[in-house]
Amino acid sequence: MKKVITFGEILLRLSTERHLRFSQATNFNATYGGGEFNVAVSLANYGLETEFVTRLPKNDIGDCALQEIRKQNVSTANIQFGGDRLGIYFLETGAGTRGSKVVYDRASSAIAQIEPSSIDWKSIFKDADWFHWSGVTPAISSNAAAVCLEAVKAAHAMGITISSDLNYRSKLWKYGKEPKDIMPELLKYSHVILGDLDTAFFMTGQEKQDPDYQDMESLPQLYDLLYKSAPDLKYVATTLRYSINASHQKIGGILYDGKDIYYAKTREVTPVVDRVGSGDAFMGGLIYGLLNDDLDKQGTIDFAAAACCLKHTITGDFNLASIAEIEQLAGGDSSGKVSR
Amino acid sequence: MKKVITFGEILLRLSTERHLRFSQATNFNATYGGGEFNVAVSLANYGLETEFVTRLPKNDIGDCALQEIRKQNVSTANIQFGGDRLGIYFLETGAGTRGSKVVYDRASSAIAQIEPSSIDWKSIFKDADWFHWSGVTPAISSNAAAVCLEAVKAAHAMGITISSDLNYRSKLWKYGKEPKDIMPELLKYSHVILGDLDTAFFMTGQEKQDPDYQDMESLPQLYDLLYKSAPDLKYVATTLRYSINASHQKIGGILYDGKDIYYAKTREVTPVVDRVGSGDAFMGGLIYGLLNDDLDKQGTIDFAAAACCLKHTITGDFNLASIAEIEQLAGGDSSGKVSR
Amino acid sequence: MKKVITFGEILLRLSTERHLRFSQATNFNATYGGGEFNVAVSLANYGLETEFVTRLPKNDIGDCALQEIRKQNVSTANIQFGGDRLGIYFLETGAGTRGSKVVYDRASSAIAQIEPSSIDWKSIFKDADWFHWSGVTPAISSNAAAVCLEAVKAAHAMGITISSDLNYRSKLWKYGKEPKDIMPELLKYSHVILGDLDTAFFMTGQEKQDPDYQDMESLPQLYDLLYKSAPDLKYVATTLRYSINASHQKIGGILYDGKDIYYAKTREVTPVVDRVGSGDAFMGGLIYGLLNDDLDKQGTIDFAAAACCLKHTITGDFNLASIAEIEQLAGGDSSGKVSR
Amino acid sequence: MKKVITFGEILLRLSTERHLRFSQATNFNATYGGGEFNVAVSLANYGLETEFVTRLPKNDIGDCALQEIRKQNVSTANIQFGGDRLGIYFLETGAGTRGSKVVYDRASSAIAQIEPSSIDWKSIFKDADWFHWSGVTPAISSNAAAVCLEAVKAAHAMGITISSDLNYRSKLWKYGKEPKDIMPELLKYSHVILGDLDTAFFMTGQEKQDPDYQDMESLPQLYDLLYKSAPDLKYVATTLRYSINASHQKIGGILYDGKDIYYAKTREVTPVVDRVGSGDAFMGGLIYGLLNDDLDKQGTIDFAAAACCLKHTITGDFNLASIAEIEQLAGGDSSGKVSR
Amino acid sequence: MKKVITFGEILLRLSTERHLRFSQATNFNATYGGGEFNVAVSLANYGLETEFVTRLPKNDIGDCALQEIRKQNVSTANIQFGGDRLGIYFLETGAGTRGSKVVYDRASSAIAQIEPSSIDWKSIFKDADWFHWSGVTPAISSNAAAVCLEAVKAAHAMGITISSDLNYRSKLWKYGKEPKDIMPELLKYSHVILGDLDTAFFMTGQEKQDPDYQDMESLPQLYDLLYKSAPDLKYVATTLRYSINASHQKIGGILYDGKDIYYAKTREVTPVVDRVGSGDAFMGGLIYGLLNDDLDKQGTIDFAAAACCLKHTITGDFNLASIAEIEQLAGGDSSGKVSR
Amino acid sequence: MKKVITFGEILLRLSTERHLRFSQATNFNATYGGGEFNVAVSLANYGLETEFVTRLPKNDIGDCALQEIRKQNVSTANIQFGGDRLGIYFLETGAGTRGSKVVYDRASSAIAQIEPSSIDWKSIFKDADWFHWSGVTPAISSNAAAVCLEAVKAAHAMGITISSDLNYRSKLWKYGKEPKDIMPELLKYSHVILGDLDTAFFMTGQEKQDPDYQDMESLPQLYDLLYKSAPDLKYVATTLRYSINASHQKIGGILYDGKDIYYAKTREVTPVVDRVGSGDAFMGGLIYGLLNDDLDKQGTIDFAAAACCLKHTITGDFNLASIAEIEQLAGGDSSGKVSR
């Protein structure tokens, strides 16, 4: 069984029920999630061995997060404890023409205060096959960015496959650095990058282009720009999203292997139950496909896109769909019949 | 007032809220339902006199089911008490491309252990006009099948109209018999059969055909095959369902009287609030139409299909729509305006 | 800052959850609302100074309504206390082809028993710019109608802009008068009328016409009929609603200034979370636009229609959308992306 | 099986959860109850045949009440339909030193508007053994009082046992009459009266006394005063309540048969889950005991007091305890061990 | 009407339901509270004019707090907006031998970052009669302590009565100062101090004593020690709490006027619904009594202690008891009878 | 770290909320628990390594149980999958004089159908220190009893300490055997037995005695009777429970080491939040104490009894109290103060 390590922040998610606005809420549903952990949950559900590395505060709220990680069958063996608080995000779920709203409450979180050199990456990566991180972590604090760099360097040195999700969040990046100061050094060890080209060029400080994701002629040249500064880069993937409204999305995907473009055809996603974490579901599907000899490139991008679609029907950050459910949808059956 | 008797199992239904998956549920909504009882509830709501015959365990959960039957204005006069437990089904309500999921938990239920000859059908049918059963009951156990056969024979002997809903559930039928061993003998007393032709041919052990439900030329011949072994058969009806996804169905219907095909035109049903029991709503509408001199054949199939559509908007197994609401929809007004 | 006064009834709203029918409900969500108060809430959210005049019973339920008014930042300075009870309306929220259902429980409400001359309108209107009322209030009782007339006369005498929402509710008007006995006298002081032409002609006792809201040729003539008996009338507006089903509406709007027709283009509204109060949201947007020098007539009707659309996505009677959200939609962005 | 008829009002009860004050409530639990109906529910649970006579509005809320009556296995055969609304009472459940709070919202209720002579008491009482009413009904309106008088006269004429619960509610009696104008005529047909002596003397216009419920010498003389004007009176009973605080009561009872005093010894009731309806539970126990040959007078008052105690542990108006549970407590076992 | 200003932090309170432990919670009830605001709410409920001064973040969660302040009828006229986040406290409500548990999550809160001189106290205090603060605010940060000192100095200069609640929270005070470095300077302007003597001596850096709160001989000498460094000090009060277990408290109080000790007798408080904020309820009662000419010193301490008792029966931080309810309990009636 | 293995059944627990009776419930809280698993959870919380061996069905409900085991930090390494269904128990939580009610729904559960020899006990016990089982498992079916015997024999052979909780449930034992046919053979390998003497004598087929648990003279002789047939027996312990009512218990304990009696003094437990699993909490405390060199015999029984007390304040089957909380109570501090 392949083993995948992910590193990042897990947050307490406090969401209003029944599409209520924040000002109407008298209670919040409490779940836990965070981009890199969400990827680990997908992979654990697909039967891979997974581990999540993070920093949690030593209090009851940190313990709840720890319990959730265990419940999802992800290893907690190398989690560090300390710091002031668990980061929080408040979520108001939109509907129709009203979009969902996220209020970040991440100041002074445990992982923002993580000390460089405090994680023993060598030991963590000993029997690992894959390391996954995303652009959210270096956006939190310079300490978090430094530890992230230690991780990719250690993974690189140990020959472990590295996947990077660009994941740009403009409301983070508040510690005085811009993505282009930090991300190029981190991305250069990547074997797989997930993101759209605009974000990729912005984060790597390259000139803005005008990608047409339907144009199989021009796209390869644009994707190729990312390969220049990442010598190990094998795959770039992009989630294609068309937002009709908050309850209705169209979702497809692209996988580029440095030579050919593979499309997952666009699917209707309506109604949207919860779209947070759908990009992580895509990422999880991508890693699963690339680690799975039974799936070729087309099969991989189809699986990733179908996983992303199904995530939209599931409350919370995690994609709790099974391989069988994803394969059924990837295979073209979107009828949603009752299973009994 | 006409009196209709139905016989079958009533189950405790435990469903997750807000489209949660089973693994996310910390509580279950508890309601009660079962195909033949659901039909009785529809008919009680339409003002008919109804009675439900079943077997319930003598414990608090059985008492809750009993209370629900009374609440729905269905007679409990001939319910038998005994056995280990009330059958349960767990329901996870899907959305969009994710279908709903039913987990049956019916082992050792009270009705599975019912004793042949323990029900006094003669007395039950004394002032009844109609008897309804479905293919779920003979699928439970050989005892349940035997009692079902006693019921149709008694009804036949007493000249009562018999309706049969084929209702094939592959996960039942676990006691060593196949439908074709049991169903033909049961179905041969039918005046009305509800089901699609594939199921009908499979259950009666006939050769598979390839029905085209839009083809008014070939359909009658196929339906006619069912009349051969059921000498009293007057009507066959089929619910037409096209599943766009779990939240979006198209629903129509067919009524065949041995001569002509009557269509209820296909309607959009979106969003689907709860589709469990929608076939029973169709059946209830059909019986109502056939018992009601004010509705001709076209009116009957229109009423049945509109009842089925409205059921999809109602949580739980029962069709709680009123005659007026169904007639409004059957009459073509699907605007769903606020009534105030 | 402009100050707007509204006058009318605030009700306790008891609604079933999760689309449950009344007969399935074991609890009710309790909120508060009423047409004229809903307009005040919209305007308070847009930053205007607002005040709501009403009559509340001196009991705990009346106190809850009072607290809600304060919470919404609407002045309670001139609320009168007394009477038997707070009016109630029960709401069952429909879905798809099943419409929502309102059961009024307003007999003997505090405002129905209000005494003429008991409100000091002169003092209330001292520093006010705008007075808004609707056709619901005169429908409650002859006392309520009398006080409403005192209000419009006082507003007229003091030169305050008066807006009138026709708001016809056939299940009210039970005290022996018809709209045409009461409404013409009330409407004649209007500067702004909101309503469709059928209702306007019915309430003013004029002959039924057959308006085509897409016909820019014939419409002005019909709207002009309303100007005859209302010498100060400047604007008439109409909400355009096309009800596909209870979960899917199309919403547009018309503003007529006595000369030209301004259209807000029709928008898809799906899913509908809660459509009660959407007309009040339109009215609130209209008053905001007319009081706001930055919005021209086209901008005003676009804002009003977009406010109405967004209201459909919000639970409860109030439009809790912000100016920024409404402007984004009015400006054409209905993508409902996550804000984070 | 003995048959008991009760007559009165059933209300929608809207209660806050978790001891919340009204001003904190965002939803209400909705149940149904009313003194005379509560008595019928107790008796139905004890296996007697019961029927409740009342007037319900023809709307969805009235239908919900009707459904609840059926669910509780009480006959609805002679319920009258009409009127504006179902009466409501709001309940805030206290704790410790904070008492529970009831806000009546009963103006214009269906039963307040009942027409004299509109109920066919002769037919209702044909096969009945017992009629029960309480002092709440004549307090509602003069019409309700008139129908109540028709009922007791008919019951008297037909030789049916009549029980009367004094049930004084000072906030009712608002139609211009005092209890002493109405109650003596009604009470004079009683075979059984439940109430404390202060209330009895007040309602019958007699001089205030100072009863000492522990004094077996003086009590009989005081109870005897009630026998003077009620020639058929056989039993008077009193619930003994000592309120330590809202969560802690002491409950006992007295039964007087015109000769001897029978005491049910005082029991600790803590915590109190819900004390509304505990007097009705006492009344139900009393009727059960008096109709049951197996219970002598001491057994009857012990059963009634134990039923009253157990009611305090049950949410809602009804005493849902079984005969076995009540007999266990009446027999002295208050250990509350887990039954499994 | 007297006007009272309070200054401090308002927090989002996230509490588990039904006595669940944090690790069992899947949702949190969301309310708002904070010592000084809680006092303002009590006083607003008693009919005084009140205003709360604080700093709130400009985001949806800050807006919710703002709305709650308005709902409670407390003026928001001088609230400052800015900073990262609203402070949070998580609450797990204990029962019996298991105590409640608070997890503070207040790092980087808006008020911790408040700028000295940024509040215009002169304008705020212009028509005020009383200023209240507590020892929580100077514990948050040195900036918060500095602004608190500005407030008491301004109030002192303007001749406004100042009350100080010692309120020691050991888990705060993390910015490098101890209470004895900060509190003496703040306390010296007090007219009224609430606290126990141990805390008072600790915070003012005085030697530990061993107070016996039942000893009327020795107590005055100990209280007198506080008067030395606070020249305007008139009253010192102490809440007497005896904790039998988390669900059972005994509550009394002491008021000392520099000469005599006034006792409020100890009352049983069981069950405890929620004890958070009970000290603030005491403080609110104390201020009310001292501002109210109708209450003498004994009446004042009785009112304060009864308010504290009643708070224990109310969920949330606020004492939502009315004057009438408190006076009833202060007058000795703790029977908790149903009010109807 | 010591490792403890437990073996038995884990059930889905469906409990009504807010003390509702079954007939009032419209939803059930869903948790998981079972005597032997509950013991494992206690020990995992105390920091021991634990593993639970059981049989789960391969369906979504079985998966939920699996997830719960992981969440509680108990190893799932040797769980067997198969069988029809997960056993269920329905729980109605009593209050005061009304006891809680359990309805078992365990027919055809996965573990009832477990095959002898299907568990590899040797491998499971390889690095284990302790094995715990209870009398519930052999009561389920003869297969379950057989596997239980295999386990104790294997543990005995490998020199592992064995603890046995007698746990008599009369409603189980339905497969034709009585405890005395099965239990003696199982118990004879015990090192520690938990139970009261009546149960012990009944289960081992010995003559009924009349133990007086306060009598230090006679008790040792009675306990000594158990040592005769269990050659390795070192300790017998008994939970002392005095049930005042369902909400008020008194709890103490006895530990006998074959020579001396050690008492944990009786403590008041009120209110009782949930008493299910309190015996397992006692057992968990006992094992912890006996495995912990820092606790002597008196310390061990004090810890066990305090753990049992605290469990009564916690919802669900598990004792989620920490070592620190238990030690605080065992040390005599039952004040339940707020921890903040």
TrEMBL record, chains A, B, C, D, E, F:
Signal sequence residues: none
InterPro entries assigned to the protein according to its UniProt record, in alphabetical order: Carb_kinase_PfkB-like (IPR052700), PfkB_dom (IPR011611), Ribokinase-like (IPR029056)
Residue stretches making up the Carbohydrate kinase PfkB domain: 1-211, 254-310
Pfam families given in the database record: PfkB
Keywords: Kinase, Transferase
GO function terms (MF aspect): kinase activity
Family: Belongs to the carbohydrate kinase PfkB family.
Name of protein: Sugar kinase
